[in-house]
Amino acid sequence: MRLLAGIALCLVTACAASGFRNPDAPLSSMAVFDPVRFAGDWVKVAGYPSETNCLQESVHYSVVGPGALDTTTTCTDSGGRAASIGSARVIGPGRLRVSMKGAIAQDQWVLWVDESYRTAVIARPSGQGAWVLNRTPAISPDRLAAAFDVLRFNGFDVTQMQSLAQVPA
What we know:
Blueprint: H1 2-18, H2 35-38, E1 40-47, E2 56-65, E3 68-77, E4 80-92, E5 95-100, E6 106-113, E7 119-123, E8 130-134, H3 141-153, E9 162-163
Antiparallel strand pairs: 1-2, 1-8, 1-9, 2-3, 3-4, 4-5, 5-6, 6-7, 7-8
């Protein structure tokens, strides 16, 4: 019985380690990433439902030095609005280490940003989370489809994603 319990625990741990991503799929961040163009306001238009209880979530990045950004995440839920403040530093091409006050630093990779820096795909390389960010709450269907294609290519299961976007007809 203990052997079965041990096997079950190992299987659960293995599943949790990869999260929403197939660990055998390739994963690559953007080689050409410009933190200055990335700075500004973003709206989370898609993400995994277990990541947050926010009904609406926005992120603001501001450049504070070479390869260094301050970040503020604002969550609006049924209880109101709350902001989390932190910092992000570039640790590689399209790779950020994000430290929010009161939380453990986490790596977040920029998997894709469209040419005009209107839409971005950010993911944890651990597979524990991914987001589609857009400069506005409304995103064109082609950019949302492109973002989901990038996530699929990098091994993420987009069928589990929750769209928070307002997609124009």
